Amino acid sequence: MLIPTVSDLLLLPGLLTFFGALLYGLAWLNWRSNAVLPNYRWVAVILALLALFIGVKTMLTMSDPFYRTAIAPEGRKIVFSHYLAPALPVLLLLTIAVMEGVVKRRRLRDY
Description:
Layout: H1 6-34, H2 41-60, H3 65-71, H4 76-110
């Protein structure tokens, strides 16, 4: 059995989360300057959901007792990365939800 490294576990969820955050950040900046929130912000949500799916799949590998004993000698960092893989997109989705609430509140206030 090949033991994954921390970068193996976090690369794909991390990249998808990064590009999702970047895309939503660009949409947010566009909203701040033009008062119109573009629809491409939903692509960022799709990227975050895809990263969440991959991260949960990574975390579920920890339920196999043979896998846990195989990675035990690698240390706590590798175990922590299994749980960090779904946590990154969850944080992005929570941030997006808060920012959407801010946009909705400001729209209601302006009308």
